[in-house]
Amino acid sequence: MLDCLSRLDGKLRVIADRDGRVLTSSAEALDDAGGNAAQMLELAAMQLSLSDAASRLLAVRGRDTAIAIVPSSPAGPSLIIRAAAVDADHVCLVMAMPGQTAPGRIGELQALFALTLSEAQIVVDLMRGLPPQVIAQNRSNSIHTIRAHIRQCHQKIGVSSREELFNRIAIACI
């Protein structure tokens, strides 16, 4: 089942126990399809073992979900990990590299959340893993303008952090 889902959307799926040990994954299916699952899995395992977010991800229960953003390097793109409980002892982690989770549907974002064109484009850039400083450079805006847009997006979408933004967009658009 993990392989089928991963072939459809290109996201690595891992079933782990509450201690973070990987029991099974869809890495082989993604690698067969030309993905970079091995890189994602290695990065996730390394970062989760060192990360404070790991305990939050592995503690998800019931219908709750949690999202963590794991930077691959200070200047590099992030790995986005979404956790959902499978049962009392196991968690499913869905991992995506930047760009995979970006809805790329500017019009849908505008309609769903009443965003302006600029705000929707900034949300897509954030979903691609770009930091605000890079977005400002790419758009020839000041960092203050971009941060103001991000605050406005947070308000319109009803979130207060980047993780909440990713979770909300993922639920609404994927």
Verbal overview:
α5 packs across α6, α6 packs across α8 and α7 crosses α8 (143-157). The chain is elongated. Mean pLDDT is 76; it is low at 32-37 and 100-104. It has nine helices and five strands, in the order αββαααβββααααα. With 174 residues, it is of the alpha+beta class. It has helices spanning 2-9, 27-32, 37-50, 53-58, 106-113, 117-127, 132-139, 143-157, 162-173, and strands at residues 12-17, 22-25, 65-71, 78-85, 90-96. 51% of the residues lie in helices and 18% in strands.
N/C terminus separation: 18 Å
The arrangement of helices and strands along the chain is HEEHHHEEEHHHHH
Most strands sheet: 5 strands, antiparallel
What gross morphology would you assign?
A: elongated
Biggest β-sheet: strands ordered side by side in the sheet: 2-1-5-4-3
Helical proportion, percent range = 40-55%
**Unreliable stretches:** 32-37, 100-104
Tally of contiguous helical segments: 9
Task: Work out the strand percent.
Answer: 15-25%
CATH structural architecture of the largest domain: 2-Layer Sandwich
What is the gist of this entry?
The protein is an alpha+beta fold.
Which short descriptors sum up this protein?
single chain, 174 residues, alpha+beta, Beta-Lactamase, 5-stranded antiparallel beta sheet, 9 helices, 51% helix, elongated
Write the layout of secondary structure elements.
Elements: H1 2-9, E1 12-17, E2 22-25, H2 27-32, H3 37-50, H4 53-58, E3 65-71, E4 78-85, E5 90-96, H5 106-113, H6 117-127, H7 132-139, H8 143-157, H9 162-173
Antiparallel strand pairs: 1-2, 1-5, 3-4, 4-5
